[in-house]
């Protein structure tokens, strides 16, 4: 129970936990849920149609990917990342190397050759101001 929930009688809580239907004077499907997944009238699951060439396609773009330019974190060359993204059918790929854009040129050239939309970025390491000032002063 949250702070903004209306009071719920014990009899209603017990009825819901036991899985018994609501009283006849309550409208159909009004089980107190706020989404179709919580409704007594939830529609059955309908799988997406599969194409003849393979599984159903879902639009997806990986937005956090490191190349081997991210020392000790990424293992693949930017060109390999692009090739794998195309093979998997990704809509786009973002290259976000650590503290710089070191693999972007090779990434962009490979993506252009394979017509893969790209996003460029960097994962920056931010240190507290006290730590940076100690490093500069030599203490």
Name its key features.
139 residues, 11% strand, alpha/beta, 29% helix, 4 helices, single chain, three-stranded parallel β-sheet
Give me the side-by-side strand order of the main sheet.
1-2-3
Q: What letter string, H or E per element, gives the SSE order?
A: HEHEHEH
Radius of gyration: 26 Å
Question: Which runs of at least 5 residues are low in confidence (pLDDT < 50)?
Answer: none
- Helix tally equals 4
Notes on the protein architecture:
The protein contains 4 helices and 3 strands, in the order H-E-H-E-H-E-H. It has helices spanning 10-18, 78-88, 104-114, 129-137, and strands at residues 61-62, 92-98, 118-123. A 3-stranded parallel sheet has the order 1-2-3, covered by helices on one side. Strand 1, helix 2 and strand 2 form a beta-alpha-beta unit. The model has no long low-confidence stretch (mean pLDDT 77).
Give the topology, please.
Blueprint: H1 10-18, E1 61-62, H2 78-88, E2 92-98, H3 104-114, E3 118-123, H4 129-137
Parallel strand pairs: 1-2, 2-3
Helix pairs in contact: 2-3
Summarize the structure.
This protein is α/β, with parallel strands linked by helices and 139 residues long. The protein has helices spanning 10-18, 78-88, 104-114, 129-137; strands spanning 61-62, 92-98, 118-123. Strands 1-2-3 form a three-stranded parallel β-sheet, with helices on one face.
